Amino acid sequence: MATILLVLWQPGRLSIGISAMIGAFADLVTGVNPFSDVIAVWEIVWDPTLTFVGLILISLSLEKIGFFEWMALKMILLSEGYGKRLFFNMVTLGAGVSAIFANDGGVLILTPIILAQMVRLGMPRHSLVAFVMGGGFVADITSLPMPISNLVNILSADYFHLSFWTYSIRMIPVDIVAFLVSSLVLFIYYKSDIPHRFSINGIEADSAIRDRFLFRFAWVLLPVMASLDFLLPFRGVPISAITLGTALILLSAGMVNAFLNPLTLVLQAPWRIVFFSIGMYVVVFGLGRTGLLSALTQFVQTMAHHGLGLGILAVGFTTAGLSAVMNNLPAVMMGAIAIHSANLPVPVERALALANVIGCDLGPKMTTIGSLATLLWLHVLEGKGLRIGSGYYMKVGLVLTIPVLGTTLVALWVVERLYG
After folding, report:
1. Is 197 helix (H, G, I), strand (E, B) or coil?
2. In tens digits, what is the pLDDT along the chain, a chain of 420 residues?
3. Do the beta carbons of residue 354 and residue 337 sit within 8 Å?
4. Under a CB-based contact definition with an 8 Å cutoff, are residues 358 and 314 in contact?
5. Could you give the CA distance from residue 234 to residue 66 in angstroms, rounded to a whole number?
6. What is the DSSP code string of 198-263?
7. Is 91 helix (H, G, I), strand (E, B) or coil?
8. CB within 8 Å of 125: residues ≥ 6 apart
9. In Å, what is the CA distance from 191 to each residue of 49, 110, 209, 256?
């Protein structure tokens, strides 16, 4: 718990990677974990964390090109000046970007762009809050469809050896349900804050493009990456090789025409996540060795033996609660180890592993400390002059998350029943 507090508190702007490594080192020195755990953890986290780094490198490159700003301007133009249509377009954009580029990259890059465009349209503060909260919430809540859509997903799929295909065919329909329900709840909550009409005079999407060659090249490269994500893992190719390879190709193309500086973007990549994943997993392994995870494992076994539906709901709501109070990355690790240790039949284990993902993707939205992305998101907004208080955020988070979480878990149960 001391490690988790260090990660959330970040005294003296201490990196989350260093905080997690301090906790892991303390466990090794005190004998809670043998050094062999470090090797075991590296074998678990190297592919997920490098996949995440690759996705962020791609997102940073596309942001420099003007890719995301172009998409935001397109959404404004497609709304034809109608506020409610724009709200739906923006939450759809947030969900789409999150699905392909991971929620952290989507939220942290897209949010400042959405905010700037809403200010440009002359919207009042309460409308700015509605659009920013809508885009941010949906980007996180709908980060379920593919392993690459969230670091939580990548870690879980890798831990349980779920192929890109096995994971996605189950979670894409579940994610659609999460998107529809969350969009509806957000619209009901914010409909009085959304302007009826606004002017789109002077809005031109192509003005956002900073390099036309790279912009067009990205539209060719990204579908190729998506196709390879589905096909190559069947041949034993790790997803990290695909995402890092895509990032390398994009950076190389940018370097050839002297538009992108690869070294600058590589230095901006979240390398701290690599150290955070290793350190936090070692700490969670230590919790297991001290017996603190045995109660969670017993709970999983008991709920699963009372039926798949109850097991899915119990695991999803439990890990959502853990994510809300202790951050979703340690929570998903604890949930994964407990589910694996429960020695359940493979179909049941897979369903509960996906319920764990849903809980740890959605649960963090109930508090400001539930995920690192939320903490950074609030910091970015405050830096742009829009401060959202913790009390307000948690009030909206609870109203939105609980019904969406329940509906999404039921959707997973239906999907598992259909697929067998």
Report:
1. strand
2. 555 555 555 555 555 566 666 766 776 777 766 777 777 777 777 787 788 788 888 888 888 898 888 988 999 999 999 999 999 999 998 888 888 877 776 677 778 888 888 888 888 888 998 998 888 888 888 889 999 888 889 889 988 989 889 999 999 999 999 999 999 999 999 999 999 998 888 888 888 899 999 999 999 998 998 888 877 766 778 888 988 999 999 999 888 877 777 777 777 766 666 676 677 667 766 766 666 778 889 999 999 999 999 999 999 999 999 888 877 878 888 899 899 999 999 999 999 999 999 999 999 889 877 776 777 777 778 777 888 887 888 888 998 899 999 999 999 999 999 986
3. no
4. no
5. 34
6. ---TT--GGGG-S-HHHHHHHHHHHHHHHHHHHHGGGGT--HHHHHHHHHHHHHHHHHHTT---HH
7. helix
8. 386
9. 38, 22, 32, 47
